[in-house]
Amino acid sequence: MATVEAPAKHTTGDSLGTGRRKTSVARVRVRAGNGTITVNGRSFESFFVREQDRKAVLDPLAQTDRVGSVDVSITVHGGGITGQAGACKLGIARALKKYDSGLEDALRQGHLLTRDSRMKERKKYGLRGARRGTQFSKR
Fold first, then answer.
1. 95, 87 in Cβ contact below 8 A?
2. What local confidence, expressed as pLDDT, does residue 110 receive?
3. DSSP assigned state of 17
4. Does the predicted TM-score (pTM) go above 0.90?
5. What CA dihedral angle connects 67, 45, 59 and 8, to 10 degrees?
6. Which is more confidently placed, 116 or 9?
7. For residue range 10-27, what is the model confidence (pLDDT) as tens digits?
8. Up-side HSE of residue 138: CA atoms within 13 Å toward CB?
9. Which residues contact 92 (CB under 8 A, 6 or more apart)?
10. What is the distance between the alpha carbons of residues 60 and 42, in angstroms, rounded to a whole number?
11. What are the φ/ψ torsions at residue 38 (nearest 5 degrees)?
């Protein structure tokens, strides 16, 4: 009787992933370890102060039960804190997919491998912003 083998795991070396959100870009490196997360050389808790940003970054790890088993190193730049958290989230999900190809279904079901394509609309000439016009003055 033939045995069914599990998908190949990427245990040697690092797995890399790139995440983008608005104008933020995150380069993520995942390797086997004990669960430490560093962002731009700082600890994860000191970089992402807001709870919702921390939850967004940890979402791919929690979805795949890898919170304490992998070390994550992130370099992120551009945009604001929430955009950077979204970029880190996508980068971690992509790196985990490379780390262990069997995790792709769980990541896909959690909508973690889809890039959020919303961007800021450009300002048009003659207007105060993307759509707002100038205030009308009767006199």
1. no
2. 92
3. E
4. no
5. -40
6. 116
7. 456 789 999 999 999 999
8. 0
9. 17, 19, 28, 30, 57, 60, 61, 72, 74
10. 20
11. -120, 140
3-state secondary structure 63-126: HCCCCCCEEEEEEEECCCHHHHHHHHHHHHHHHHHHHEHHHHHHHHHCCCCCCCCCCCCCCCCC
Answer whether 50's CB lies under 8 Å from 84's CB.
no
| CA separation for the pair 117, 110 (Å, rounded) | 17
Confidence category of residue 2, pLDDT binned at 50, 70, 90: low
Residue listed under structure tokens 């797995």: 15
Cα–Cα distances (Å) from 116 to 18, 26, 44, 111, 137, in that order, read 13, 14, 22, 10, 40
Beta carbons of 110 and 61 less than 8 angstroms apart: no
Directed axis angle between helix 81-99 and helix 51-63, to 10°? 10
Please report the pLDDT score of residue 13 as a whole number.
Answer: 76
Question: Per-residue pLDDT tens for 30-62?
Answer: 999 999 999 999 999 999 999 999 999 999 999
